[in-house]
Amino acid sequence: MDTSCLMHLFWWITHIFLSLPSLLSLVQSLTCDQEKQYAWPQSVSQWCCDMCPPGQHMVGRCTGQNSPTQCANCTSGYYSDSYNFDRSCTSCDGCSMSELQYVSRCSTKQNDVCSCKPGYRCRGSGPCLDCEEIPSPNTPKLIPTPPIMPATASNHSVSDDSKWLPVCVSAVCVCLLLTCLVAISKLKPVLRWIGSTNSFWSPKKTTPANQSTADEEVPMPVQEVCGKPELLLDV
Q1: How far is Cα 159 from Cα 153, in angstroms, rounded to an integer?
Q2: 68-81 pLDDT tens trace
Q3: Would you say the pTM of this structure is higher than 0.90?
């Protein structure tokens, strides 16, 4: 390596070491006006940029310590009420509610200011954007009741039906039993009549004809008396 290259490298190293304290002091000593300025870049802040005044918004950021911030006025219906470096202005709220009335209209530096009409008051804290009616001292205060959920109502109806189910089943069984008893009592005469008709039409027992004939043909015992046959008569 020749002498010129070594001298060039030595010069860069010396320059870095000599400029390092100044850079550190610049970073450490950088203080910006918190109300009207902001440090930039955010990663390693090197200079302070001016914010845009109220009524304007930023359209171009500063590129150095002596570079001004580019700002533009807010358009109609938009405002900016403080120093900022926003890219756009804020939309005006308006007093569109029927109970609201204007105290002051929106401008480029101020939002709409609203108030409630007589008989109403602002709801909540902060800007008046909604109103509620002022209750009369003679008006009774209504206690809100919780709404009945459909699921709860259906549970009650199911439990009531389950209570009446055994009673209905028992009543049906009793009615069927009484109907059977009445039907049996009504059918008894009919069954008796059917039994009597069956006995009337059944054939009577008769002695067989061949038996009587056989009895007639049986010869009477004959006893011989003195060599002559003699018929024995029943006494």
Answers
A1: 10
A2: 999 999 999 999 99
A3: no
